[in-house]
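Review form for a predicted model. The reviewer records the input and the model, then writes brief findings.
Reviewer: anonymous (R2)
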Amino acid sequence: MPDADELVANALAAVRGTDVRQAERQLDQLMVGTGAADGTTAVDAALLRRLVRGLGRLWPRGWQPADVDRITSRRLDARAARLVRETMAVQRREQSDPVPAWFDEQLRGLVTEVRADDENVLASWSVREALDRADALRAAVDVLALVESLPPIAVLRPPPGTTGAATARPAGTRSGSPMLDRVRALLAKAESTTFPAEAEALTGKAQELIARHSIDEALLAAGSERGDLPGGVRLSTDTPYAGAKALLVQEVAAANRCEAVWSDDLGFATVLGWPADLVAVELLYTSLLVQATAAMLRGRAERRAGSGRRTKVWDESFLNAFALRIGERLRAATEAATNAADQAAAETAGAERLLPVLAARGEAVRERLDTLFPGVTRHRLSVRDAEGWSSGTSAADRASLEVGGGRKPRQVPGRPDRP
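Model under review:
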Protein backbone atom coordinates (compact mmCIF):
# COMPACT_ATOMS: atom_id res chain seq x y z
CA MET A 1 0.00 0.00 0.00
CA PRO A 2 1.45 3.45 -0.91
CA ASP A 3 2.31 5.80 1.93
CA ALA A 4 0.44 9.08 2.47
CA ASP A 5 2.88 11.25 0.50
CA GLU A 6 2.68 8.91 -2.48
CA LEU A 7 -1.12 8.87 -2.37
CA VAL A 8 -1.16 12.67 -2.43
CA ALA A 9 1.33 12.76 -5.32
CA ASN A 10 -0.73 10.26 -7.32
CA ALA A 11 -3.96 12.18 -6.74
CA LEU A 12 -2.30 15.45 -7.73
CA ALA A 13 -0.88 13.97 -10.94
CA ALA A 14 -4.28 12.55 -11.86
CA VAL A 15 -6.09 15.85 -11.23
CA ARG A 16 -3.60 17.61 -13.49
CA GLY A 17 -4.27 15.11 -16.27
CA THR A 18 -7.20 14.71 -18.63
CA ASP A 19 -8.46 11.29 -17.50
CA VAL A 20 -11.43 12.08 -15.25
CA ARG A 21 -11.93 8.47 -14.23
CA GLN A 22 -8.31 8.12 -13.18
CA ALA A 23 -8.61 11.28 -11.10
CA GLU A 24 -11.67 9.86 -9.32
CA ARG A 25 -9.88 6.57 -8.68
CA GLN A 26 -6.92 8.36 -7.10
CA LEU A 27 -9.24 10.47 -4.95
CA ASP A 28 -10.91 7.24 -3.82
CA GLN A 29 -7.46 5.99 -2.80
CA LEU A 30 -7.00 9.13 -0.74
CA MET A 31 -10.33 8.37 0.93
CA VAL A 32 -9.17 4.90 1.85
CA GLY A 33 -5.84 6.22 3.11
CA THR A 34 -2.80 4.10 3.84
CA GLY A 35 -4.73 1.21 5.35
CA ALA A 36 -3.22 1.81 8.78
CA ALA A 37 -5.24 2.78 11.80
CA ASP A 38 -4.20 6.39 11.42
CA GLY A 39 -4.27 6.33 7.63
CA THR A 40 -6.80 9.16 7.28
CA THR A 41 -4.86 11.43 9.62
CA ALA A 42 -1.65 10.62 7.72
CA VAL A 43 -3.25 11.68 4.42
CA ASP A 44 -4.42 14.98 5.92
CA ALA A 45 -0.95 15.63 7.32
CA ALA A 46 0.68 14.83 3.97
CA LEU A 47 -1.67 17.18 2.14
CA LEU A 48 -0.99 19.96 4.63
CA ARG A 49 2.80 19.47 4.47
CA ARG A 50 2.82 19.67 0.70
CA LEU A 51 0.55 22.69 0.62
CA VAL A 52 2.66 24.50 3.23
CA ARG A 53 5.78 23.70 1.22
CA GLY A 54 4.15 24.93 -1.99
CA LEU A 55 3.14 28.22 -0.41
CA GLY A 56 6.63 28.75 0.98
CA ARG A 57 8.05 28.39 -2.53
CA LEU A 58 5.75 31.12 -3.87
CA TRP A 59 7.13 33.98 -1.77
CA PRO A 60 10.58 34.15 -3.46
CA ARG A 61 8.77 33.91 -6.81
CA GLY A 62 7.04 37.25 -6.27
CA TRP A 63 3.71 36.13 -4.81
CA GLN A 64 2.30 37.78 -1.72
CA PRO A 65 -0.44 36.48 0.61
CA ALA A 66 -3.04 38.85 -0.90
CA ASP A 67 -2.13 37.69 -4.41
CA VAL A 68 -2.55 34.02 -3.52
CA ASP A 69 -5.85 34.71 -1.78
CA ARG A 70 -7.16 36.67 -4.76
CA ILE A 71 -6.24 34.11 -7.41
CA THR A 72 -7.60 31.21 -5.34
CA SER A 73 -10.95 32.98 -5.06
CA ARG A 74 -10.84 33.76 -8.78
CA ARG A 75 -9.91 30.32 -10.11
CA LEU A 76 -11.55 28.13 -7.45
CA ASP A 77 -13.98 29.58 -4.89
CA ALA A 78 -14.30 31.32 -1.53
CA ARG A 79 -14.22 28.01 0.31
CA ALA A 80 -10.86 27.13 -1.22
CA ALA A 81 -9.57 30.60 -0.40
CA ARG A 82 -10.41 30.05 3.27
CA LEU A 83 -8.35 26.86 3.27
CA VAL A 84 -5.44 28.73 1.70
CA ARG A 85 -5.63 31.47 4.33
CA GLU A 86 -5.46 28.97 7.16
CA THR A 87 -2.58 27.14 5.50
CA MET A 88 -0.71 30.42 4.99
CA ALA A 89 -1.02 31.01 8.73
CA VAL A 90 0.45 27.56 9.39
CA GLN A 91 3.27 28.24 6.96
CA ARG A 92 4.00 31.54 8.69
CA ARG A 93 4.21 29.89 12.09
CA GLU A 94 6.69 27.38 10.68
CA GLN A 95 8.80 30.09 8.99
CA SER A 96 12.11 30.38 10.83
CA ASP A 97 13.84 32.87 8.48
CA PRO A 98 13.36 36.66 8.84
CA VAL A 99 9.86 37.79 7.85
CA PRO A 100 9.22 41.44 6.85
CA ALA A 101 6.59 43.46 8.68
CA TRP A 102 4.61 44.03 5.48
CA PHE A 103 4.13 40.27 5.07
CA ASP A 104 2.72 39.84 8.57
CA GLU A 105 0.47 42.87 8.17
CA GLN A 106 -0.92 41.52 4.91
CA LEU A 107 -1.47 38.08 6.38
CA ARG A 108 -3.25 39.51 9.42
CA GLY A 109 -5.65 41.24 7.07
CA LEU A 110 -6.60 37.85 5.60
CA VAL A 111 -6.55 35.55 8.62
CA THR A 112 -8.89 36.99 11.23
CA GLU A 113 -8.53 34.13 13.69
CA VAL A 114 -5.32 32.27 14.54
CA ARG A 115 -5.90 28.59 15.20
CA ALA A 116 -3.47 26.68 17.39
CA ASP A 117 -4.25 23.18 16.10
CA ASP A 118 -2.04 23.18 13.00
CA GLU A 119 -2.10 19.38 12.63
CA ASN A 120 -5.86 19.22 12.05
CA VAL A 121 -6.31 22.19 9.73
CA LEU A 122 -7.89 20.18 6.91
CA ALA A 123 -10.34 18.33 9.16
CA SER A 124 -11.37 21.50 11.02
CA TRP A 125 -11.81 23.40 7.78
CA SER A 126 -14.00 20.69 6.25
CA VAL A 127 -16.25 20.68 9.34
CA ARG A 128 -16.68 24.48 9.21
CA GLU A 129 -17.44 24.31 5.48
CA ALA A 130 -19.92 21.43 6.01
CA LEU A 131 -18.06 19.21 3.52
CA ASP A 132 -18.02 15.44 3.52
CA ARG A 133 -14.59 13.83 3.31
CA ALA A 134 -14.70 13.18 -0.44
CA ASP A 135 -15.52 16.80 -1.28
CA ALA A 136 -12.96 18.10 1.22
CA LEU A 137 -10.17 15.98 -0.28
CA ARG A 138 -11.16 16.97 -3.81
CA ALA A 139 -11.09 20.67 -2.88
CA ALA A 140 -7.77 20.33 -1.06
CA VAL A 141 -6.14 18.61 -4.04
CA ASP A 142 -7.49 21.31 -6.36
CA VAL A 143 -5.97 23.98 -4.09
CA LEU A 144 -2.64 22.14 -4.08
CA ALA A 145 -2.70 21.84 -7.89
CA LEU A 146 -3.30 25.59 -8.19
CA VAL A 147 -0.58 26.59 -5.71
CA GLU A 148 2.02 24.39 -7.39
CA SER A 149 1.10 25.68 -10.87
CA LEU A 150 1.44 29.42 -10.22
CA PRO A 151 4.15 31.04 -12.38
CA PRO A 152 6.86 33.42 -11.18
CA ILE A 153 5.79 37.06 -11.11
CA ALA A 154 7.60 40.33 -10.41
CA VAL A 155 9.16 40.51 -6.94
CA LEU A 156 7.89 43.84 -5.61
CA ARG A 157 9.14 43.57 -2.00
CA PRO A 158 11.84 41.55 -0.24
CA PRO A 159 10.12 38.22 0.52
CA PRO A 160 10.49 36.22 3.74
CA GLY A 161 13.87 34.58 4.16
CA THR A 162 15.80 36.93 1.85
CA THR A 163 18.36 39.66 2.42
CA GLY A 164 16.60 42.83 3.52
CA ALA A 165 13.40 41.05 4.57
CA ALA A 166 13.77 42.01 8.23
CA THR A 167 14.39 45.68 7.46
CA ALA A 168 12.17 46.14 4.39
CA ARG A 169 10.35 49.46 4.35
CA PRO A 170 6.58 49.50 3.86
CA ALA A 171 5.37 50.06 0.31
CA GLY A 172 3.19 53.02 1.20
CA THR A 173 2.44 55.74 3.69
CA ARG A 174 1.50 54.60 7.20
CA SER A 175 -2.01 53.18 7.17
CA GLY A 176 -2.86 55.23 10.28
CA SER A 177 -1.66 58.56 8.85
CA PRO A 178 -4.00 61.48 9.73
CA MET A 179 -3.77 62.64 6.12
CA LEU A 180 -4.93 59.25 4.85
CA ASP A 181 -7.73 59.18 7.39
CA ARG A 182 -8.97 62.52 6.03
CA VAL A 183 -8.68 61.30 2.44
CA ARG A 184 -10.60 58.10 3.19
CA ALA A 185 -13.34 60.06 4.92
CA LEU A 186 -13.69 62.44 1.98
CA LEU A 187 -13.78 59.60 -0.56
CA ALA A 188 -16.33 57.66 1.49
CA LYS A 189 -18.63 60.69 1.45
CA ALA A 190 -18.04 61.14 -2.28
CA GLU A 191 -19.08 57.54 -2.94
CA SER A 192 -22.21 57.73 -0.82
CA THR A 193 -23.67 61.04 -1.95
CA THR A 194 -26.32 61.14 -4.67
CA PHE A 195 -25.35 64.69 -5.71
CA PRO A 196 -22.63 64.77 -8.40
CA ALA A 197 -21.52 68.31 -7.51
CA GLU A 198 -20.98 67.34 -3.88
CA ALA A 199 -19.09 64.20 -4.89
CA GLU A 200 -16.86 66.23 -7.18
CA ALA A 201 -16.04 68.73 -4.43
CA LEU A 202 -15.29 66.00 -1.90
CA THR A 203 -13.07 63.97 -4.20
CA GLY A 204 -11.36 67.07 -5.50
CA LYS A 205 -10.44 67.97 -1.93
CA ALA A 206 -9.15 64.44 -1.36
CA GLN A 207 -6.96 64.65 -4.45
CA GLU A 208 -5.68 68.05 -3.38
CA LEU A 209 -4.52 66.55 -0.07
CA ILE A 210 -2.92 63.62 -1.86
CA ALA A 211 -1.11 65.80 -4.38
CA ARG A 212 0.30 68.12 -1.74
CA HIS A 213 1.43 65.20 0.37
CA SER A 214 3.12 63.52 -2.60
CA ILE A 215 5.10 66.67 -3.42
CA ASP A 216 6.13 67.09 0.22
CA GLU A 217 7.30 63.48 0.32
CA ALA A 218 9.31 63.93 -2.88
CA LEU A 219 11.13 67.00 -1.53
CA LEU A 220 11.75 65.31 1.81
CA ALA A 221 13.23 62.23 0.15
CA ALA A 222 15.42 64.39 -2.10
CA GLY A 223 17.00 65.99 0.95
CA SER A 224 17.87 62.70 2.65
CA GLU A 225 20.47 60.02 2.09
CA ARG A 226 18.00 57.16 1.70
CA GLY A 227 18.64 54.92 -1.29
CA ASP A 228 15.10 53.63 -1.74
CA LEU A 229 13.82 52.21 -5.00
CA PRO A 230 10.28 52.65 -6.30
CA GLY A 231 7.94 49.98 -4.94
CA GLY A 232 4.82 48.36 -6.26
CA VAL A 233 1.28 47.20 -5.46
CA ARG A 234 -1.12 44.90 -7.26
CA LEU A 235 -4.74 45.91 -7.80
CA SER A 236 -7.53 43.54 -8.76
CA THR A 237 -8.93 43.82 -12.29
CA ASP A 238 -11.22 40.83 -12.16
CA THR A 239 -14.19 40.17 -14.41
CA PRO A 240 -16.57 41.54 -15.50
CA TYR A 241 -15.04 44.28 -17.66
CA ALA A 242 -11.46 43.50 -16.65
CA GLY A 243 -10.04 45.58 -19.51
CA ALA A 244 -11.96 48.68 -18.45
CA LYS A 245 -10.76 48.23 -14.87
CA ALA A 246 -7.18 47.89 -16.10
CA LEU A 247 -7.59 51.09 -18.08
CA LEU A 248 -8.86 52.89 -14.99
CA VAL A 249 -5.83 51.65 -13.02
CA GLN A 250 -3.52 52.96 -15.71
CA GLU A 251 -5.20 56.35 -15.86
CA VAL A 252 -5.08 56.84 -12.09
CA ALA A 253 -1.48 55.55 -11.98
CA ALA A 254 -0.31 57.91 -14.72
CA ALA A 255 -1.96 60.84 -12.97
CA ASN A 256 0.05 60.07 -9.84
CA ARG A 257 3.44 59.59 -11.51
CA CYS A 258 3.23 55.80 -11.47
CA GLU A 259 3.43 53.11 -14.16
CA ALA A 260 0.95 50.24 -14.52
CA VAL A 261 1.09 46.85 -16.24
CA TRP A 262 -1.95 44.61 -16.64
CA SER A 263 -1.72 40.82 -16.22
CA ASP A 264 -5.07 39.75 -17.64
CA ASP A 265 -4.61 36.01 -17.07
CA LEU A 266 -3.82 36.56 -13.37
CA GLY A 267 -6.55 39.14 -12.76
CA PHE A 268 -4.49 42.08 -11.52
CA ALA A 269 -2.59 45.18 -12.58
CA THR A 270 0.83 45.94 -11.09
CA VAL A 271 1.43 49.60 -10.24
CA LEU A 272 5.01 50.82 -9.76
CA GLY A 273 5.83 54.09 -8.04
CA TRP A 274 6.96 55.83 -4.88
CA PRO A 275 5.24 55.02 -1.56
CA ALA A 276 2.96 58.06 -1.20
CA ASP A 277 1.94 57.82 -4.86
CA LEU A 278 1.11 54.13 -4.57
CA VAL A 279 -1.18 54.85 -1.64
CA ALA A 280 -2.90 57.55 -3.69
CA VAL A 281 -3.42 55.21 -6.64
CA GLU A 282 -4.92 52.49 -4.47
CA LEU A 283 -7.30 54.85 -2.69
CA LEU A 284 -8.40 56.70 -5.83
CA TYR A 285 -8.82 53.57 -7.95
CA THR A 286 -10.99 51.92 -5.33
CA SER A 287 -13.18 55.01 -4.98
CA LEU A 288 -13.44 55.70 -8.71
CA LEU A 289 -14.38 52.09 -9.42
CA VAL A 290 -17.32 52.47 -7.02
CA GLN A 291 -18.31 55.76 -8.67
CA ALA A 292 -17.98 54.36 -12.21
CA THR A 293 -20.08 51.30 -11.37
CA ALA A 294 -22.80 53.42 -9.78
CA ALA A 295 -22.84 55.76 -12.78
CA MET A 296 -23.04 52.79 -15.17
CA LEU A 297 -26.02 51.34 -13.29
CA ARG A 298 -27.80 54.69 -13.41
CA GLY A 299 -27.03 54.88 -17.14
CA ARG A 300 -28.48 51.42 -17.68
CA ALA A 301 -31.71 52.41 -15.95
CA GLU A 302 -32.05 55.56 -18.05
CA ARG A 303 -31.30 53.63 -21.22
CA ARG A 304 -33.92 50.96 -20.49
CA ALA A 305 -36.47 53.67 -19.81
CA GLY A 306 -35.59 55.34 -23.09
CA SER A 307 -33.93 53.65 -26.02
CA GLY A 308 -34.02 50.00 -25.11
CA ARG A 309 -32.16 47.08 -23.64
CA ARG A 310 -28.86 46.91 -21.80
CA THR A 311 -25.91 45.22 -23.50
CA LYS A 312 -22.45 44.19 -22.38
CA VAL A 313 -20.95 46.22 -25.23
CA TRP A 314 -22.66 49.36 -23.93
CA ASP A 315 -21.39 48.75 -20.40
CA GLU A 316 -17.83 48.20 -21.58
CA SER A 317 -17.83 51.30 -23.77
CA PHE A 318 -19.26 53.32 -20.89
CA LEU A 319 -16.52 52.22 -18.47
CA ASN A 320 -13.72 52.73 -21.00
CA ALA A 321 -14.91 56.26 -21.74
CA PHE A 322 -15.29 56.98 -18.03
CA ALA A 323 -11.69 55.85 -17.37
CA LEU A 324 -10.18 57.94 -20.16
CA ARG A 325 -12.11 61.08 -19.30
CA ILE A 326 -11.30 60.74 -15.61
CA GLY A 327 -7.66 60.36 -16.63
CA GLU A 328 -7.73 63.69 -18.43
CA ARG A 329 -9.25 65.42 -15.41
CA LEU A 330 -6.82 63.82 -13.01
CA ARG A 331 -3.82 64.78 -15.10
CA ALA A 332 -4.98 68.38 -15.28
CA ALA A 333 -5.39 68.55 -11.51
CA THR A 334 -1.96 67.02 -10.89
CA GLU A 335 -0.31 69.49 -13.24
CA ALA A 336 -2.09 72.38 -11.54
CA ALA A 337 -0.97 71.21 -8.10
CA THR A 338 2.60 70.76 -9.30
CA ASN A 339 2.72 74.17 -10.94
CA ALA A 340 1.34 75.82 -7.82
CA ALA A 341 3.91 74.07 -5.63
CA ASP A 342 6.75 74.98 -7.99
CA GLN A 343 5.66 78.61 -8.07
CA ALA A 344 5.48 78.70 -4.27
CA ALA A 345 8.93 77.13 -4.07
CA ALA A 346 10.30 79.73 -6.48
CA GLU A 347 9.61 82.36 -3.84
CA THR A 348 11.87 80.63 -1.31
CA ALA A 349 15.58 79.84 -1.19
CA GLY A 350 16.73 76.94 -3.36
CA ALA A 351 13.48 77.09 -5.23
CA GLU A 352 14.05 75.43 -8.55
CA ARG A 353 14.50 71.97 -7.23
CA LEU A 354 10.91 70.65 -7.36
CA LEU A 355 10.57 69.84 -11.06
CA PRO A 356 14.04 68.20 -11.35
CA VAL A 357 13.21 66.09 -8.29
CA LEU A 358 9.91 64.95 -9.81
CA ALA A 359 11.61 64.24 -13.13
CA ALA A 360 14.28 62.12 -11.45
CA ARG A 361 11.66 60.16 -9.53
CA GLY A 362 9.69 59.58 -12.71
CA GLU A 363 12.77 58.27 -14.46
CA ALA A 364 13.46 55.91 -11.55
CA VAL A 365 9.92 54.50 -11.86
CA ARG A 366 10.37 53.93 -15.60
CA GLU A 367 13.68 52.16 -14.99
CA ARG A 368 11.96 49.93 -12.45
CA LEU A 369 9.29 49.16 -15.04
CA ASP A 370 11.91 48.20 -17.64
CA THR A 371 13.68 45.97 -15.11
CA LEU A 372 10.61 44.08 -13.89
CA PHE A 373 8.63 44.01 -17.14
CA PRO A 374 11.01 44.05 -20.11
CA GLY A 375 8.47 42.65 -22.56
CA VAL A 376 5.25 44.61 -22.06
CA THR A 377 3.02 45.31 -25.03
CA ARG A 378 0.26 47.83 -25.69
CA HIS A 379 -3.34 46.71 -25.72
CA ARG A 380 -5.54 48.51 -28.26
CA LEU A 381 -8.78 50.03 -27.08
CA SER A 382 -11.79 49.72 -29.39
CA VAL A 383 -15.07 51.61 -29.15
CA ARG A 384 -18.00 49.36 -29.99
CA ASP A 385 -20.93 51.41 -28.70
CA ALA A 386 -21.02 55.16 -29.39
CA GLU A 387 -23.96 55.73 -27.04
CA GLY A 388 -22.17 53.97 -24.17
CA TRP A 389 -18.99 55.95 -24.88
CA SER A 390 -20.86 59.26 -24.82
CA SER A 391 -22.66 58.35 -21.59
CA GLY A 392 -19.43 57.26 -19.93
CA THR A 393 -17.68 60.49 -20.87
CA SER A 394 -20.55 62.56 -19.49
CA ALA A 395 -20.56 60.55 -16.26
CA ALA A 396 -16.83 61.11 -15.83
CA ASP A 397 -17.35 64.84 -16.27
CA ARG A 398 -19.78 64.68 -13.35
CA ALA A 399 -17.64 62.34 -11.23
CA SER A 400 -15.73 63.20 -8.12
CA LEU A 401 -12.01 63.56 -8.73
CA GLU A 402 -9.18 65.49 -10.19
CA VAL A 403 -5.79 64.19 -11.27
CA GLY A 404 -4.88 62.97 -14.81
CA GLY A 405 -3.59 60.39 -17.30
CA GLY A 406 -4.67 59.18 -20.70
CA ARG A 407 -3.08 56.02 -22.03
CA LYS A 408 -4.16 52.54 -23.09
CA PRO A 409 -3.45 49.75 -20.60
CA ARG A 410 -0.20 47.93 -21.16
CA GLN A 411 -0.40 44.20 -20.99
CA VAL A 412 2.22 41.59 -20.23
CA PRO A 413 2.76 39.21 -23.17
CA GLY A 414 0.75 36.00 -23.05
CA ARG A 415 3.53 33.77 -21.70
CA PRO A 416 2.27 31.83 -18.67
CA ASP A 417 5.45 32.49 -16.69
CA ARG A 418 5.13 36.27 -16.80
CA PRO A 419 2.99 38.40 -14.48
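Findings: Residues 312-345 form the longest helix (34 residues).
Further findings: Confidence is low (pLDDT under 50) at residues 401-407, 413-419.
Recommendation: see findings above.
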